Amino acid sequence: MKNSVKAFVIATVMGVSGSAFAAQTMDNNSAIEITAEPVKTEVMFDDLPELVKQGFQNSDYAETTVNKIFKVEDEGMVSYEFYLGADNEVITLSEQGELEE
Fold it and tell me: How many Å apart are CA 74 and CA 20, to the nearest integer?
C-alpha cells in the first residue's frame, strides 16, 4: 500500500510538473521576438561618404569641433552620429548627408 501511494504521489507530481513545464515552454516560444541592436562603428571624417561630408560641411555645425563620428547600422538603415564640441552634442546625418531630427 505504501509503495502504491508513493507511486501515485510521484506520478501526480511529475504529471503536474511536466504540464507546467510544457505550458511554460509554449508560452516562451510564442513570445519570442528578436530585435537586433544597432551596430556602431567609429569612423574618421575622411572615410565618410562624400554626401555625408558635404552635408556636414554645409550645416550650421561645420565650424564645431568634431570629437567622434560613428556609423550606425540599424535594421538595414545607415546613419552617422557626430559628437561635437565641449559638451559632446550629438547630431545625426543620413547617408544622403541630411540632418536628422
Answer: 38
Nearest to 85 by CA among 54, 63, 101: 63
> What b/e string do you get for 23-43 counting C-beta neighbours within 10 Å, with b at 16 or more?
eeeeeeeeeeeeeeeeeeeeb
Asked if 65 contacts 84 with a C-beta cutoff of 8 angstroms, the reply is yes
Please state the rounded mean pLDDT for residues 76-85.
97
First-residue to last-residue Cα distance in the chain = 76
Instruction: Please state, in angstroms and rounded to a whole number, the distance separating the CA atoms of residues 71 and 29.
Output: 34
> Model's pTM, two decimal places?
0.66
C-alpha cell of residue 72: 550606425
